Amino acid sequence: MAATLRRFSDVDWSTWEPTEHATLCFVIRDGEILLIRKKRGLGAGKINGPGGRLEPGETLRECAIRETREELGVTPTGVELAGELRFQFSAGYALHGSVFRASGCEGKAFETDEARPLWTPIDRIPFQEMWADDALWFPHLFAKRYFAGRFLFDSDTNEMLGYALDRP
User: Fold this and answer.
1) What is the DSSP secondary structure assignment for residue 118, as one 8-state letter?
2) 165 exposed, middle or buried (CB, 10 Å; 0-12, 13-18, 19+)?
């Protein structure tokens, strides 16, 4: 991809290929969602869900469970695929994210080097501290409707430059 991606229409989504694959996993139970304050890596400082990059030989579901364990010390249960997200950054980095929803977890979440856990009431999600795309697809996550989204972000500012959200 060229380093001049400034508009959503600059991306040829029909031939788009990700640089990496990753997962997000959201535990949702009793009117709350388990979020994290990310401490390092892409999106450090933002609130998000636990997740990370797919390792060789690992399924996406295994990755979501492993990353949640590593970042928060809990094992998600009732894990199911909820949607997929394609992120293109203006400088060329491309990430395919698979979003998982979990109905519970075993253990008590604790802070790690990677993240601080935040059990958050669903009606008080701090979207202003999250990636701009989250507010667009979270309603589908909560409604248990599969979703697919494509997003273009500025590589320097992490500002969302454009998007398309589909429900296949």
Assistant:
1) E
2) middle
- How many Å apart are CA 152 and CA 95, to the nearest integer? 11
Q: Which residues contact 48 (CB under 8 A, 6 or more apart)?
A: 24, 35, 36, 38, 130, 131, 134
HSE-CB for 28 with a 13 A CA cutoff:
19
- Give the residue from 2, 3, 4, 15 showing the smallest Cα distance to 150: 15
pTM, two decimals, is 0.94
- List for the chain the helix, strand, coil content (%; round to 5): 20, 40, 40
pLDDT at residue 2 is higher than 60: no
Beta 80-89 vs 147-153: how paired, if at all? parallel
Task: Summarize the confidence of residues 70-94 as an average pLDDT.
Answer: 97
Cβ neighbours of residue 138 closer than 8 Å, sequence gap 6 or more: 125, 127
* pLDDT of res. 1: 43
The beta strand positions in the chain, using DSSP E, are 20-29, 32-38, 47-48, 51-53, 75-77, 80-89, 94-102, 104-106, 115-121, 147-153, 160-166
